[in-house]
Amino acid sequence: MIRVDDLRKEYDGFVAVEDSSFEVDAGEVFGVVGPNGAGKTTTLKMLAGLVEPTSGDAEIAGTPAGSLDMRRNLGFLPEESPLYEEMTAHSYLEFFADLYDVPGDVARDRISDSLDRLDLDHRERRIGDMSKGMKRKVAIARSLVNDPDVLIYDEPASGLDPLTTNYIIDFTRELADAGKTIVFSAHNLYHVESICDRIIVMNQGDIIARGSLDEIRDKHGRTAYHVYTDVPVRDAAPEDDDRYHVVVDDMTAVERVREEANADGGRVVDIQTEDPSLEDIFLDIAEESVEAAREDEAERPAREVET
Amino acid sequence: MKLRKTLRIARWEVTKSAGTLDKTTVVFAALVLLVGGVAGGAVVSEVALDEGIYRVGVDESSPYHDVVQENEQLVAGSPDGELGEDISMRVRNGQFEAAETRKGSAAYAEFRTAVRVYNDRRYDDLFASGTVNRTAAFPVVVVLEYADRNTQDFSGAGGGRTDDGTVDGDGGSTDDGGGDGSGGVDDGTGGVGGGDDVRAPAVGGGGGGGTQMSGAPGQLSPPFPFQSLVLAFLFIVPMNFVVQAYGSTIINERVNRRGELMLVAPVTRGDIIAGKTLPYFAGLMAVCSAIAYVVGGSALALAAVLPIALLFLAATFVGGMFARSFKELTFVTIAVSVFLTAYVFVPAIFSDITPIALISPLTLVVRDLRDVPVSVLEYAYSTGPFYLSSLVLFATGASVYREEDMFTQKRLPAKALDSISTFVWNKRTVAGVSVAMLPFVFVAELLVLALVFPLPERFALPVLLTSIVVVEEIAKSVGIYAGFTHDRFRDTLGAAVGVGVASGVGFFVAEKGMLVVQVVGMGQYEYGQAAFSTLPSGLSPLVAVGLLFMPLGLHVVTATISALGARRSRTAYAMAFTVAVLVHLAYNVSVLAVRSGVLDGV
C-alpha cells in the first residue's frame, strides 16, 4: 500500500532524513519511533506530500506522494491540531468534506458517525472554546471525513490526559480493525507496542532498526533472567520472603549465580525470564546508535589529518 | 485550479472572517464608510472646496463681470482693490493685470478658461434660440487639430507676466490676444466677433526667458482637477482598509501552523490563494462599483481601479507570507498602503498637464470623471505595470505557500531570498527572474521619475540616474545571489560568469520592453530619456543600433561583477554590487554625454 524508496530530506545542509526505504502493506499498522529530532515527523510529512523530498520517491496506493489523487485517499493527523478556532466542529468538518468532494448527505452521515464514535459532544460549539482533548478528537474526525484507506497519524495522543489518550489509542485500534492502513508515530512506546504490527526505529535521520516486534526483540533485545536464591550472592537484593533476587542477561550468568549459591550452602530456588519491552530495546538501540555516531565523529578529524 | 474548490474556499473565508468580526469593528467600519460617503457626497453635491478661491477685481458694468460670476473658482471684487492683497487680478478698461504671484498667474489662467467657457455657452444659447444663424455666423468651416503639448507649453503660468488682451466687440478675429513671452500659447479658442463677446487674453511667456522648461510641478500652477482628484481618491480609501483584513487572514494561516491541513487536502495552493483572495477582491470591486455609481464614473474608472486593487492585494499577500508576526505585518501593510497610495495619487494630480501622470491608473479615473477619452495604448501603459507586478507578486508569495516555508520564522530578506530561490535553478531561470523583475524596475523607475520631477535639474538628474542604476542592478543580481545562497549553482568562476551573462541578457531583453514608453511620449522629456534610455530621433541607423545594443554589454558585465561577489559571501556580494553600480553609473553618464554631443551634431 505504501512504498518509500531512498527518501532523503536536507534543510540548508542539515540532513533530516537519510535515504529511508520501507514498505507498508494494506491493512497494516506501521509504527515509526525514535527520539526527538530523529526524522519521524519529516518522514511522515514527506509521505503525506507536505514536504518535498530532496531525493527519493514515496507513493501511496500507486499514486505519488503529494499528488491530488493521493491526497484524496489519505487522512493526515499532524502532531499539533491546527484548527480554525472560530468555526464550529460541525462546520469545520463539513468544509473539509466539501474540499474532499464528499457529497453533502454522505458527509453529514460520516461526520455524525465519527463524532459519535469519538464521543464528541458540543458539535456546534466554537472549536476555540473546546478543550485540548476535544480539539484532538475534531482533528481525528477531520482525518476521516473522506473515509481514506490510509491514515498517517503523527503523535495522535501527544500532550493529552491519560483518559483521552487511552480513548484515542483504542479508537486507532478500531480503525486498524476496520482495515485501514495506518502509519503511526508516538513517543509513548507502549502505545506503539500495543497496536503496531511492524515498526521502524529512527535516529538522527537514519532507520536503525526495522521489522515486527518479535523480529526486533530477537535481533536487538536481550531477555532478562530473574534468579532467586536462598542465600545472598553477589549483586543480589534481599526480598521480603527471605529470598535473594538478582537479574542477569544470559544463561552463563545464571550458572555463575547457581555456583555461587551452592558454594555458600544455598541453591537457586526460582528462575523467571522476562522479554524486553520495546522501550528497553529502543533505549538500547538508541544508545548504540548515539555511541556509534560519537565514535564516527571522533574518528573523522583523524582521517582528515591522515589525508 | 478548480473553480468549484476556489469558490468553496472563498465562501469559507467569508464565513470564517465574519465570525471573527466583533461589534466594535463593525461599528468602526460603518463609521468609516459613512464618513467616506459624506465626504464623497459633499464633493459630488458640488460643495466645491476651491469655490471662489480667486478674487477678480472687475466693475459690474464690465462685460467680464458676468464671466467672473459664472465661474465657480472666481469671485468678483472691486477693481480698486490692492493687487496681490485684496484681489488676484484686475480687469479695467479692457486691460488685464494679474498679481505677480503664483496665485495671480493661476487666477489669470482660470480667468482665460472662464472667458472661453462663457463665449461657448453664450453662442450655444444664441444658436439654440435662433437669434444667430450659425451658417451666417461661421461661413467658413474651420477644422481644429489639437497637437500634443510639448514642454514649452507648460511654461505659461510660470511667473510669466500677463498680457493685455483687448475687447473686440465687432471683429471676427480668431486671434485671442498676443502673448509676448517666448513660450506664449495660442490655443486657438479666441473670441469670435459679435455683440458683447469678451475676448480672452493670452497667457504670457514663461519666466524662463525663452529657455526650455521641464514642465515640472515646481514650474506649474493650479488649477488642478481638484474635484475629480478627490473623487478618484475615494476609490483608494477602501483599499487601505481591506488590505489590513486580507493581510491578517494570510498570516493567520501561518500562525500555529493553521494552514497545514489545507495543504494536505486535495486542493492546489492556487485554489487556496485564489479562494482566500477572491472575497477581498470582489468586495473591493463591489465597493468601487458603488463609488463609481455615486460619483458618475464609467466602466473605464472600474477598469482602471481593478489593477490598483490587484496590486494592493498582491503586495499585501507577499507581506502576509513574509512577515513573522502580526506586528511585523502591520508595518508591512502600512508601508504597502502608503507607498501605493502615494504612487497612484501623486502623479494623478498632474493628469491635466503631463504624460508622466499616466504612470498612475488613477489618472485614468480622473480622466474618466472629466470625460476625457483614454486610448487603449494609454490604458495598457498605465495599468500594464500594475497587472504584471501583481502577477509576479502573487507568484512570489505562492512560491513560499508550502509547509517548508510558510511556518518558518525568518527575517523578511531571508524569506524574500527563499522565495526567489524557488524560481532559480539554472542559467535560463536566472534570466527568467531578471525578466520577471521588469515590472518592479518599471514601477520603481517611474516612481523615482515622479519624485524627482519637482526637483531642480541639477539635483534631479544625479538622483534619478543613481536611483535607476541601483534599482536595475538589484533586479539583475538578486536572482543570482538567491541562487548562490541556496546552492543552486556550483561555486565556480565559470558558473558565476554563466549566470551573470544569463541575467544580463535576460534583463536586456526585458528592458527593451520599456520601449513602450516611447509610444506614449514619455521619451520626449529629458528625464524620461535618462530614465528609460529612449532613443532620440534624428540618429543615423548605425548610431541607433549601437546605442540599442550597448546596454547588452553593460548589463552582462555588471551582472557578472555582482555574480562574482555573490558566489563568495554576503559582504563580497555587497562590494561587487557597489562596483557594478559604479560601472553602470559611469556608463550612463558617458552615454548621456555622448548622446548630447551627437544630438548637437544632428
What does this structure look like?
Helices cover 40% and strands 26% of the residues of chain A. Chain A is built from 10 helices and 14 strands. Chain A has helices at residues 40-48, 68-72, 89-99, 104-117, 132-143, 162-177, 189-195, 213-220, 251-263, 278-306; strands spanning 2-11, 14-24, 29-33, 55-60, 63-64, 74-77, 150-154, 181-185, 198-203, 206-212, 224-229, 237-238, 244-248, 268-274. In chain A, the strands form 3 sheets. Chain A has a 6-stranded mixed sheet, with helices on both faces. A 4-stranded antiparallel sheet of chain A has the order 2-1-4-5, covered by helices on one side. A 4-stranded mixed sheet of chain B has the order 2-1-3-4. Chain B is built from 22 helices and 4 strands. With 602 residues, chain B is mainly α. The two termini of chain B are 57 Å apart. In chain B, a hairpin with a 2-residue loop joins strand 3 and strand 4. Chains A and B meet through helix 2 and helix 3 of A and helix 1 and helix 7 of B.
SSE diagram, text form:
The complex is a heterodimer of chains A (307) and B (602).
Chain A: E1 2-11, E2 14-24, E3 29-33, H1 40-48, E4 55-60, E5 63-64, H2 68-72, E6 74-77, H3 89-99, H4 104-117, H5 132-143, E7 150-154, H6 162-177, E8 181-185, H7 189-195, E9 198-203, E10 206-212, H8 213-220, E11 224-229, E12 237-238, E13 244-248, H9 251-263, E14 268-274, H10 278-306
Parallel strand pairs in A: 3-8, 3-9, 6-7, 7-8
Antiparallel strand pairs in A: 1-2, 1-4, 4-5, 9-10, 11-13, 11-14, 12-13
Helix pairs in contact in A: 3-4, 8-10
Chain B: H1 3-20, H2 23-44, E1 54-58, H3 63-70, E2 74-77, E3 89-92, E4 95-98, H4 102-129, H5 134-137, H6 226-252, H7 260-264, H8 269-295, H9 299-322, H10 326-348, H11 361-369, H12 376-399, H13 403-406, H14 412-421, H15 427-436, H16 438-452, H17 457-485, H18 493-512, H19 516-519, H20 526-532, H21 541-566, H22 570-601
